[in-house]
Amino acid sequence: MLRKQKVYIALRELCKDITLQDIEEGFPGFDASTVGSKAGVNRNNTSKELNILFTEGRVIKVPGRPVYFIDRNKIEELLGSKIKDEDLRLDSIKELFKRETERAEGIADGRNAFDKIIGAHGSLKIPIEQAKAAVLYPPMGLHTLLIGPTGVGKTTFAEMMYQYAVETGRLRENAPFTIFNCSEYADNPQLLLSQLFGYVKGAFTGADKDKPGLVEKTDGGLLLLDEIHRLTPEGQEMLFLLIDRGIYRRLGETENVRKANILLVGATTENLDSSLLRTFLRRIPMVIKLPSLSERPLSERLRLIKQFFKDEVKRVQVPIRVFKDVIKAFLLYECKGNIGQLRGDIQLTCARGFLEYKTYNRKTIDVDVKLLPDYVYEGLLNSKENRDEIVNLLQLDNKKFYTFSNFAGEDFSTVDDYSISEDLYKEIGKKWNIYTQKGYSQKQIREIINSQIEGYFKKLLNRGVSQAETPGYEELFKVVSPRVVNAVEVALKVAEQKLKREFGRQVIFGLSMHIGTLLERLREGRVCYNTQINQIALNNPREFHAARLVRKVLEEELEIEIPKEEIGFISMFLYAASSKDHHKNKNIGVIVLAHGKNTASSMAEVANSLLGTQHAKAIDMPLDERVEDVLKTTIELVKQINNGKGVLLLVDMGSLVAFAEIITKKTGIKTFAVEMVSTPMVIEAVRKSLLPEMTLEQLVEDIQQISPYIGRLVTENVKNKASIVEPRTIITTCLTGEGTAVKLAELLRKSLPLINEYNIQIRHLNAEKKKDLKIKKEDILAVIGTINLDIPGVPFIPVDEIIIGDGFKRLEKIISGMTVSFKNYQPSEFNVITKILSDTLVFLNPNKAYELVDQSFQYLIESLKVKECRELKIKYIFHNSCMLERVIKGEKLPYKNIDSLKNTKRELYSIIKKAMTVLEENFGVEIPDTEIGYIMDLVDTH
């Protein structure tokens, strides 16, 4: 390796960990002695090679005593832009950053209008060069088309073209700048053309006098035709004369010709070939494409985000403190409406923060993640993909939040027609005072005003692509707050996971309207329930359990208390919605085939009546009817009811089992038969056939397991339960005897109805308290958790088997004493763990907890240089999630001899302490050594 290369590699290694904060604090670079020591080369030769590298443009040089050097690539990486060769020799690195920042933000002296746009020297460099060429082209510039999706800033870009034309003298200083949106008159072509070109008296009905058009008013200036694709072919043709020869006629004129000298700029989101005449396109030589937000670098997006927060500070005249997770979320969420939606979402979040500021009389507007719309918050879940870039941009290791407090300064405009009205903030303050005087509670006031904020922003962003913009939602928003709809959508997602069903938009609409009405009734005190409603709903236990979760989510999302009686209404609603939506799903067909005039019909009728469906079909087979005729009827019915998942035949005699094979061969439709049909079997078969995830093979296996013993199993269960007098015990364990063990006990009670039915108690403890256990081992059913108490004859089920595996099935088998056949099933680890966490955590977001604790775990195993162990990972995630809630609430667990443990296992303590950093920063807590002691024990046991 050449000496020069060794020196350069050494400098690059030294520069690897430099941060923006280092530069801001005056970091000068590295001298030749430091670099030489790293490279193993003497100082004089190192100095010589560094100067050669400087002349080659590979390093930056800072003259002085001593002379300092720094890697050019590293500085460009931190800047997010290229450095000019003439800037490689400078007085200080800090001065370079200051100059580059001023240049990038367009505040340096003598710059042109385009420099005001964020990205002028980055993603917008080529579009701006095109625009400058169009403006400067003699004599009056080139007519231009701006293309790009909604929200990229086409109107603002056209305005910058106008300002640049004025600055360069192509347009006079007071030249007109006119914006006309063609879509506003698209349904009335005659009115559209009259607006553009004007009209003469008598040109059409109602034209009682001459009127000039926008072309005439814009003579000598720039005319922007927004959504130009909505211009009719006739309108495009009328522009031909104006573009080609600078002449036009008003509507109704036949002989008179008028002159106008304008620069025409069109803007469209559409495909040019499909929306505009080719003859028209040929007359507009310059086409400029503006990039979407997703096509622009994160460094530009960060500057946009900061600028929009600065804009809000100027508007409300109150400092805004934005926490780093909020910045991360805005950097990473899917912003389909581009810059327009980004600004609108930031304004919406600030408006919510302003309401909190008024509510709690704070000194600053604090913008934390709880104020973010859900679709913005989801951006945090993508942080792993861009972690290194985000760290460089935000310097996450050094800042917890950003404060924007400059109320003065030049207004900075980068987007189109999405500005928030200053009156909104005044209106919030005004209404706050009115409702306070009326005696409304703070919760009620926040609920009312939040709904108004949501409605305002829905209207504001109706041109962009918002999260709820789906055909039909506009009508719903007229009667229900978008905040309620958003909360209902989140809650129904939880219900879908619990019930393994999908709910359509109609269900969202129905429940949203119900909750919207409920909020009104709660505010007015008009709440009255039939006390039997929940007892009725318990007839549908799965829906009832899901409804409890829905109520909990709605309370959290809407920050209200919902009466417990609503659980009954919601569960009945979920059951009705599920039944109503069954026809939309591909379900397994069910046909009952039995000898006798009404045997099959009777069983099918009972099943359909009890389940509220018409899914079960019946074919009665009188004893005198020919088998061939019955087979023909069955084939036709199978064809009729099959929708892709096959058909199950429930038959009363073995001879009819052969029908299934014959039908499959003749029709190609997968058909199976189960014999010895009974009414309970039909009910169970129909119920399971309606489940979206059920397959025909699984259904046959399930039904065969209970046939013909279904009645006997129920009877046996009743006998088993009736014989239980003394309670039996399940023990849950963890290192502390609290935390995970307590949450695991709660999870078992929620998820297993058998716990109550079989008179089972649950105790939670740690290994040290085993000696205090005053229970006969014969009365202990199982030990579940992270620690095996090694009680002879008592089965142990690890926590990971409960979460990902067959732990629940195994426990059901132990409790009931039944032999249960089941298959191993491995669902997504993330989905299952976050689902369980959502049931166990009280206030932490389960997705966020999982993501961050998993990051901590990955750092841990990498530092310990061990392979990932699923059992350890699950224990680690659950223990630390519960621990975080405990620390946030200020509940610290004691740990005996923690100092001794730290001294004897210093390396492990240090690694775990660093692994906790990501949790401490994101949750704003300091994890005490006593808690780290328990984590050390957890890791040590593996």
UniProtKB/TrEMBL annotation:
<dbReference type="InterPro" id="IPR036634">
    <property type="entry name" value="PRD_sf"/>
</dbReference>
<keyword id="KW-0547">Nucleotide-binding</keyword>
<dbReference type="InterPro" id="IPR011608">
    <property type="entry name" value="PRD"/>
</dbReference>
<feature type="domain" description="PRD">
    <location>
        <begin position="844"/>
        <end position="942"/>
    </location>
</feature>
<keyword id="KW-0067">ATP-binding</keyword>
<dbReference type="GO" id="GO:0009401">
    <property type="term" value="P:phosphoenolpyruvate-dependent sugar phosphotransferase system"/>
</dbReference>
<dbReference type="InterPro" id="IPR027417">
    <property type="entry name" value="P-loop_NTPase"/>
</dbReference>
<dbReference type="InterPro" id="IPR004701">
    <property type="entry name" value="PTS_EIIA_man-typ"/>
</dbReference>
<keyword id="KW-0418">Kinase</keyword>
<protein>
    <submittedName>
        <fullName>Transcriptional regulatory protein DagR</fullName>
    </submittedName>
</protein>
<dbReference type="InterPro" id="IPR003593">
    <property type="entry name" value="AAA+_ATPase"/>
</dbReference>
<dbReference type="Pfam" id="PF00158">
    <property type="entry name" value="Sigma54_activat"/>
</dbReference>
<feature type="domain" description="PRD">
    <location>
        <begin position="479"/>
        <end position="584"/>
    </location>
</feature>
<dbReference type="Pfam" id="PF00874">
    <property type="entry name" value="PRD"/>
</dbReference>
<dbReference type="InterPro" id="IPR002078">
    <property type="entry name" value="Sigma_54_int"/>
</dbReference>
<dbReference type="Pfam" id="PF03610">
    <property type="entry name" value="EIIA-man"/>
</dbReference>
<feature type="domain" description="PTS EIIA type-4">
    <location>
        <begin position="587"/>
        <end position="722"/>
    </location>
</feature>
<dbReference type="GO" id="GO:0006355">
    <property type="term" value="P:regulation of DNA-templated transcription"/>
</dbReference>
<dbReference type="GO" id="GO:0005524">
    <property type="term" value="F:ATP binding"/>
</dbReference>
<dbReference type="GO" id="GO:0016020">
    <property type="term" value="C:membrane"/>
</dbReference>
<dbReference type="InterPro" id="IPR033887">
    <property type="entry name" value="PTS_IIA_man"/>
</dbReference>
<dbReference type="GO" id="GO:0016301">
    <property type="term" value="F:kinase activity"/>
</dbReference>
<dbReference type="InterPro" id="IPR036662">
    <property type="entry name" value="PTS_EIIA_man-typ_sf"/>
</dbReference>
<feature type="domain" description="Sigma-54 factor interaction">
    <location>
        <begin position="117"/>
        <end position="351"/>
    </location>
</feature>
<keyword id="KW-0808">Transferase</keyword>
